[in-house]
Design goal:
405 residues, six-stranded parallel sheet, formyl-coa transferase, domain 3
C-alpha cells in the first residue's frame, strides 16, 4: 500500500468532545499518526454522548466517539499529576503537532502553555481550539456551540422574525473550528519547512462564526446600516420561493428559484392555476416578506400529489432547481453517494460492523482510507509506554496502580 500524504507526521491530541478530535481525525485519515490522550478510567467525554445501540450508554459504543476517532491510537494519562506531565513532555519532544481544546487558564495551570512547550520542542506546532481564543476580555469565559453561534451574529439571522433567534444544529461550530484548525496546522507545517520553527495556532470558535457571517450579515450592516431579517426558513431573504420547504407525499421539497424564469416555468408546469393570475401572487418580494405562508398553502396541495423522488425526477426533466429534503435513510441509500463510494464499512470489537461517512474531499492521487476503528480506552498504553518510551513492565504496572495512566 502506498504512503498517505501525512505519513510520518506525529500528532498528539489532548482534547475532548468534537473540535480537537475532529481536527486530528482529518489528519489521521490522511496518514498522520495520532496519539489520543484520555483521562484514566473516564476517557474523552464524547464516549458518553450518543447515539448508542438500543440507547444503552457504553463508553466503547458511542457513535459520536467512533466517528471522530478513526485511525487513532489511545493512551490514558493524567496530565494533572507531576508524573503525568513529565510523561507528556517526553512524548512531545518527539512530536510534530499538539492539538488541544482546553480552557487557556487550565493549560497555563498544567504548565502546557506555548512558551513552555516551545522551549521543550522548538519545532512543535501547537493548535489550540477554544471558545473565544487565547486573548481578549472573553478569553477565560466558558462557552459552547450555541454561545459562539450567537456571538458571531449568526443566530440573529435564524428563525422567524416574530420568535426568538435560533442556533445551528449538530454542534456545527465545533466542526467548523476543527476544519479551520486542521487547515491552519497544515499551513504551519509548510511554514516550518521554511523557518525551521514551530508556532502557536489560536483558533477561536467565536471568530469562525463571525468570519462566516462577514460575507453577508456584517457587510449588509456596515455598508448600508441594515440588519438581516429572520424569515423562518433556509436561504431566504430574497424573493419567493427560494428556501421554502413545502410538504409532499412522503416528506418535503426544498424550493429554489432566485431567477424569475424558474418561478414562471414552475407556474406553467402547475397548469397556470387561477390564483397565479392575481397580481398579489406576482410580486415575489411581497410574497417573500409579507405573506409567504399564504403562498405556501396554495402550492401545498399540488406538491402533496407526488413523492419526493417523483418530484425530483419531474423537476430534473424540466431543469428547475427544486430538490428533495433528505432524511438519514435517504442519504445513506442515495445512488449518487453509493456510486461515489462515500460510505465505508468498518468492524469494531465492541459494536460490530458499522457504516461511516467518507472524506469531505477527493484527491486524484492522494490516498484516503479508514484503516482501523476508533480505539478502546487506553488500547495502546503498553505499546506507547513500554515499546516507545522505554518503561519496564514493572514501571508500567506502577504507573497504572498510581492511576497516572
Amino acid at each position: 500500500m502506498s504512503k498517505k500524504a501525512l505519513s510520518g507526521l506525529k500528532v498528539v491530541e489532548y482534547g475532548h468532545f468534537i473540535s480537537a478530535p475532529y481536527c486530528t481525525k482529518l489528519m489521521a485519515d490522511m496518514g498522520a499518526e495520532v496519539i489520543k490522550i484520555e483521562q484514566p478510567s473516564t476517557g474523552d467525554e464524547s464516549r458518553y454522548h450518543g447515539p448508542f445501540p438500543d440507547d444503552l450508554p457504553h463508553p466503547e459504543k458511542s457513535g459520536l466517539f467512533l466517528y471522530l476517532n478513526t485511525n487513532k491510537m489511545s493512551i490514558t494519562l493524567d496530565v494533572g499529576t507531576a508524573k503525568g506531565r513529565e510523561i507528556l513532555e517526553k512524548i512531545l519532544k518527539d512530536t510534530d503537532i499538539f492539538v488541544e481544546n482546553n480552557p487557556p487558564q487550565m493549560i497555563n495551570e498544567l504548565k502546557l502553555d506555548y512558551p513552555r512547550l516551545k522551549k521543550l520542542n522548538p519545532h512543535l506546532i501547537v493548535t489550540s481550539i477554544t471558545t473565544y481564543g487565547q486573548t481578549g476580555p472573553y478569553r477565560d469565559y466558558k462557552g459552547y456551540a450555541i454561545n459562539c453561534c450567537a456571538f458571531g451574529g449568526v443566530s440573529q439571522s435564524l428563525g422567524h422574525n416574530w420568535r426568538e433567534p435560533l442556533t445551528f444544529p449538530m454542534s456545527m461550530g465545533h466542526y467548523l473550528a476543527a476544519i479551520n484548525g486542521a487547515a491552519a496546522t497544515m499551513v504551519a507545517i509548510l511554514a516550518r519547512d521554511i523557518t525551521n520553527s514551530g508556532q502557536h495556532i489560536d483558533i477561536a470558535e467565536a471568530d469562525i462564526w463571525a468570519s462566516h457571517h462577514v460575507g453577508f450579515g456584517v457587510t449588509l450592516y456596515t455598508f448600508i446600516g441594515r440588519e438581516h431579517l429572520r424569515n423562518g426558513y433556509l436561504g431566504g431573504g430574497w424573493t419567493y420561493p427560494t428556501g421554502r420547504l413545502i410538504p409532499c407525499k412522503d416528506g418535503y421539497m426544498a424550493l429554489c428559484a432566485p431567477q424569475v424564469k424558474y418561478w414562471k416555468q414552475f407556474i406553467e408546469l402547475m397548469g397556470n392555476p387561477e390564483w397565479s393570475q392575481n397580481p398579489r401572487y406576482r410580486d415575489r418580494r411581497a410574497m417573500e416578506y409579507e405573506y409567504p405562508e399564504e403562498v405556501d398553502a396554495l402550492l401545498t396541495p399540488w406538491f402533496l400529489e407526488r413523492t419526493k423522488q417523483e418530484h425530483f425526477k419531474f423537476f430534473e426533466e424540466h431543469a428547475i432547481p427544486f430538490a428533495p429534503l433528505y432524511n438519514m435513510e435517504d442519504e445513506v441509500n442515495d445512488p449518487h453517494l453509493t456510486e461515489r463510494e462515500f460510505f465505508t464499512d468498518i468492524d469494531h470489537d465492541a459494536i460490530g460492523r458499522l457504516k461511516y461517512p467518507g472524506p469531505p474531499y477527493r484527491f486524484s492521487k492522494t490516498q484516503w482510507s479508514l484503516e482501523r476503528p476508533a480505539p478502546k480506552l487506553g488500547e495502546n498504553n503498553e505499546e506507547i509506554y513500554c515499546d516507545r518510551l522505554g518503561y519496564s513492565k514493572k514501571d508500567f504496572v506502577e504507573l497504572r496502580k498510581a492511576k497516572v495512566i
